[in-house]
Amino acid sequence: MTRAEDCTFEEGVYRAYPDLKRRLSKSGEPFGIWYSVVIRPYRFEPRKVDALVPLREEEPWVLADGPTDSPHRYYVTGKGFVRLCMWYPQDPPRARWRYFDGLLALLGHARTHLIREGFYREEWARHGRATWLGPEAPHEGSPLKRLPEEQKWSLSGLSR
Predict the structure, then answer these.
(1) H helix intervals, 10-87
(2) What is the DSSP letter of 13?
(3) How far apart are CA 26 and CA 66, in angstroms?
(4) Strand order in the sheet with 47-54
(5) What is the pLDDT of residues 76-112, one digit of tens each?
(6) Which residues have CB under 8 Å from 113's CB, separation 6+?
(7) Which one of 6, 14, 82, 93 is separated from 34 by 20 to 30 angstroms, measured CA to CA?
(8) Residue 25 pLDDT > 70, yes or no?
(9) What is the pLDDT of residues 143-156, one digit of tens each?
(10) What is the pLDDT at residue 69?
(11) Could you tell me if 32 and 86 are in contact, meaning their C-beta atoms sit under 8 angstroms apart?
(12) Checking phi first, is residue 32 left (phi over 0); if not, alpha (psi -120 to 50) or beta?
């Protein structure tokens, strides 16, 4: 990343998250830049979020502390990480975060995901079942069905 790309990629993020920390990946970790910050998801408990932004055209890794009892988190085999499952790899590019969207947008996706998890856990605790408040895709071992494109966009508020 050049200094100019850094500025554009990180634009506005330090105003929104003044305590944001940044570091290069260590030996044995995927290659990229790790960002660490505490995100306050609406009325739910603050969560420490770590986001790895690879220096190649790959999906970012977003990890969060707290309960992992969500159908939208998954273990990275052999790494000991639990990643947030924020989009479906086969979604069209407009439905996923892309590098040029910037870091602030990535952290916004993470915050939205954590809010959805909070509501999911509350509903599960009250009713023994829960609905995910956003678009869903099939998960391994899950009976979830892929939502039709129109319904997905209207649920996520990303209609274009």
Answers:
(1) 13-16
(2) H
(3) 24
(4) 21-24, 32-39, 47-54, 61-64, 81-84, 73-76
(5) 766 667 889 888 877 888 888 988 899 999 999 999 9
(6) 62, 72, 84, 86
(7) 93
(8) yes
(9) 333 334 433 333 33
(10) 77
(11) no
(12) left
**Is residue 6 predicted with pLDDT exceeding 60?**
no
| Number of neighbours of residue 103 by Cβ within 10 angstroms | 27
Give just the sign of the alpha carbon dihedral 26, 30, 34, 38.
negative
Structure tokens at 46: 């603050």
Classify 28 in phi/psi space as left (phi over 0), alpha (psi -120 to 50) or beta: left
The Cα 148–Cα 153 span in angstroms is 9
Q: Dihedrals φ, ψ of 40, to 5°? A: -105, 100
In DSSP terms, 54 is beta-bridged to 32
For the entire predicted model, the pTM comes to 0.79
d(CA 40, CA 111): 7
The strand ranges marked E within the chain are 21-24, 32-39, 47-54, 61-64, 73-76, 81-84
Taking residues 108-137, report their average pLDDT. 91
Write down the H helix ranges in the chain: 3-9, 13-16, 103-127, 149-156
Number of residues that make up the chain: 160
